[in-house]
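Students often ask what a holo structure prediction actually looks like on paper. The answer is less mysterious than it sounds. You provide the chain, you provide the ligand, and the output is a string of discrete structure tokens encoding the 3D arrangement of the protein together with pyridoxal-5'-phosphate.
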Amino acid sequence: MSGPQDELAGLASAGLLRSLRALDSGTGPRVIREGRELWNFASNDYLGLAGHPALAEAFIEGVSKYGVGAAASRLVCGTLPPHRELEEAMAAAKGCEAALTFPSGFATATGSLPALAGKDDVLVLDKLCHASLIDGARLSGATIRVFPHNDVAKLEKLLAGIRGKQAKARVIVVTESVFSMDGDLCPLREIVDAKDRHGALLFLDEAHAFGVLGPHGMGLAEREGLQDRVDFQMGTLSKAAGLAGGYLATSGAWRDLLVNRARSFVYTTAPPPALACASLKALEIIRSEEGQQLRQRLRENLRVIDPSHESAIVPVLLGENEAALNASAKLEEAGFMVPAIRYPTVPRGKARLRVSLSAAHSAEVVRDLAGLLLGRAQNS
Ligand SMILES: Cc1ncc(COP(=O)(O)O)c(C=O)c1O
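The corresponding structure tokens follow.
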């Protein structure tokens, strides 16, 4: 019987071994790793809220009022006032009847999809969906169909075929508004039209759009005026909101079903109430004038790297694992932390640098990074 060393050696020889490298500082635009100060272009703190004093204050107040932990699952006695307030505020912000929060975005996807679909149903996923959506789909036991990335014509064909055979099945299209490793947007309006034409539902993961897109930062569905046509608006509080936790906004009846059936909600301890207090504050800031200014700063920083790019994630495709690892190491030598992303996070042969921008970066440091990236492109 082979042991873990053999598998680790296999990963290492394929250039796929990963290991933990801790920071010696907190997070933020400037971090310390292995004794060196680096500009952080690796985090998902798109608005800089992870270091916002108002969120820290809300967190601390929450601890003083409610203690550090919820001490039980939500259904037992772990639902405290801030959990309820956060869900009500999130539902209102998303234009939905109800919302439910989870300990993480990952838990939202892996708990919700199996609660919403079962063996007689069909989940139709974009090829580049995040691991949490894929795992949630697999756990559901539903039939899984996959359409090529953002290809609405192929999606439409798939839906027509499914409906031809299973007129009554529950069919849910699952996609993301901003793709986590490519930073591109889904053609939301066309997808919404397609799913409506075929009597399907839409589960939209707004993880990287929440806080970033839309007049109030509520995501792509808000920006496109489509919130009332997206059946399940999922997202996470771990990226632009700077905290941790996931949410799903939907109708009251679907939410009640999730409360009963989503195993990652039912069988886990409620998130600390203080986290819900800080999340409420993050939601308030994201929707406020200050949130709009932060989005404006983020857009200005993006313009320095790529004027046509709409999300905070800018991929630099390099192909082979070694090329991505070397490029990341070179940038680190120059004082920039930019991660190399490899299989299985992205398809084989599509290794890349993933540059993530934040409103917390100064325009000057973004220009310095852009200069280095451009130099790379010209020398390659
Ligand atoms: C598209 C997408 N969905 C869900 C998640 C999971 O969210 P969380 O980090 O809150 O677990 C992530 C990232 O981690 C993501 O990129």
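The pocket of pyridoxal-5'-phosphate is lined by residues 104-106, 109, 130, 132, 176, 180, 205, 207, 236, 238, 246 (CB under 6 Å).
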